[in-house]
Amino acid sequence: MKEKAKLTIDLALSAIKIKRSEIDALGNYHIYVSCTVRSTLCHKCGEKISRFHGQCDDSIIEHLPILEQRVFIHVKWPRFRCHNCDNNPTTSFHPQWLNNTGSQTKAYENFCLKFLINSTVKDVSEKLSTTEEQVEGIINRNIDTDIDWNKTHPKRIGLDEIALRKGHSQYLTIVSDMSTPGKIKVLAVIKGRTKEEILPFLKSIPKKILMSLDAITIDMSGSYFSALKELISDMNYFNRIVTIDRFHVAKLIGDKVDKERKKVIKKLKKVFKNDEDQLMRLKHTMWPFRHHLDDLDDNERNQLENLFELEPALKECYELRECLYRIFELKEISKKEAREKIDQWCNNAEKYETKGFKPFISFISTYRNFEENILNYFTHRISSGPVEGLNNKIKVIKRRGFGFRNIKNFAKRVFLDINYKPILLPATVR
Ligand SMILES: [Zn+2]
Predict the structure, then answer these.
(1) What are phi and psi of 24, to 5 degrees?
(2) Cα of 304 from ligand 1 centre, angstroms
(3) Which of 3.10.20.90, 3.40.50.11890, 3.30.470.20, 3.30.420.10 is the CATH number of 156-245+383-429?
(4) pLDDT of residue 266
(5) How far apart are CA 155 and CA 224, in angstroms?
(6) Predicted TM-score (pTM) of this structure
(7) What pLDDT, on a 0 to 100 scale, did the predictor assign at position 429?
(8) Distance 424 CA to ligand 1 centre (A)
């Protein structure tokens, strides 16, 4: 008979002594242990008590798997009686490594949480051969979505809306801490995006933290803007910290300019309806048109030039968009200088018209409404990159999470994947 390689391992569990172990028909390990402690702390008075008062019923505790087999610890915890408290209550021993339910070790819970990152409850329960209820219980017990303001001191906060289900006008507001670039954290997941829905959370931010922020970035929807206006009575402070994310400015102008492209394409398609070659060329212009010139290869530049040859006015429109973009890309300019440059840009854009229509007028009026707060970008230089990254992560969770029964569950998954991930998997953030 061949000799098998055997290994003695440390279970890393204190207060117990192994009596015997078994392997069941499924290959799972059952480890029978006895408890070695002779005292515990009274649950009422907190004093050390050592008067033994029998054993509890058999506990079966799941611990970390060994060689991919499940591991169960069988133990009867001792119970002790207190003689200091009225009615002499008893307390059973509960080791530090055991979770609150007493049916899994904390190490096992952590192990399960690691598996849950970027996975569904169903996937994880299948992979760990356990039930969905068990996995959900682990999430509920371990993922805390309430902020401890004594431990959280954000300097930069972002408010972003996300559509929960397309076409159902169900929205969430994600509040994030953007203080450390590349290490964005979620502060809250709020149901809705209206002023009334977000104000309760905003009001829960301690005044001391609220009044020492460098920036709060928002979109141009108006409801975040008016909620913050109600929250912050000091208008100077409001104008200094409330910042419209440049991403939203770019999106607004991008949409306007793209509308013009669509009109032109529609017109040209009619003109060339019998010219297959030209029609093919028009087909591939959307991508190059929507992107910046620097990001295009030669082929894409040619496609764009071809389109502009057919419709020179569209080139002017495109260049106005690019010109504004380049102002935001300037690294060294101050808020004052940016204001002058954008004023100049507005003068040019105002004059642009096609067939009596001025596509930039409404953009300019929106810009004037939020001017101070758009220009704050040039003071804070908060890039929209991390927020976009966060939104993408949340979209992935959303797509994966068709089983989410409520916002609270959804929030827990967002917190797990974003805030808890660097703690659970420290190596991946390096
Ligand atoms: Zn007591």
Answers:
(1) -85, -175
(2) 81
(3) 3.30.420.10
(4) 92
(5) 18
(6) 0.83
(7) 45
(8) 37
